[in-house]
Amino acid sequence: GLSNILRYISRHQGFASLYNENQLEAAALVDELLSLVDSLEQRITGATSSDIGQLLNQIAGYLKSSPYLAGQSLTIADIALCSCLAAMDPNTIPNSLKAYLTNCVKAHYELKVLKAFLPDWGKQ
């Protein structure tokens, strides 16, 4: 899915700041997060809203102590999550993740393309 594509691009284009496999702990955390985002991506269309809500709350927990999922800088896990969130019904997304998505899109040129897909809450 999306995670494998992002891993491939970051490896072959030399985007070590987005996914640095040489830092094992950081790479393991990004892989863990990508697994959660993959689960979200698979459930967006078929799962109940409570299943999706539990997964979104679990993901939001990573943002309690840092501005990005895996710490202080943008990673491919953030790009994957922002892509999934932009494709979801805004009514199913917790406010904390709406704010996170809005901040990521505003702060990073790489994510500006997602701005076109955000509903009104993305223009705050």
Question: Can you describe this structure?
Answer:
It is built from five helices and no strands. The model has no long low-confidence stretch (mean pLDDT 86). The longest helix has 20 residues. The chain is mainly α.
Protein traits:
single chain; 124 residues; mainly alpha; 5 helices; 0% strand
Task: Reconstruct the topology from this structure.
Layout lengths: L1 H12 L10 H20 L5 H12 L15 H12 L7 H13 L17
Helix pairs in contact: 1-4, 2-3, 2-4, 4-5
Q: Low-confidence spans: pLDDT under 50, at least 5 residues?
A: none
Gap between N and C termini = 30 Å
Number of helical elements: 5
Structural class: mainly alpha
Query: What is the CA-based Rg, rounded?
Result: 14 Å
Strand content: under 5%
The ordered H/E elements are: HHHHH
Q: Based on DSSP secondary structure assignment, what is the total number of beta strands? A: 0
Question: Which of globular, elongated, flat, extended, rod-shaped describes the shape?
Answer: globular
Largest sheet: none
Q: Give average pLDDT, whole number.
A: 86
Give a short overview:
The protein is mainly alpha-helical.
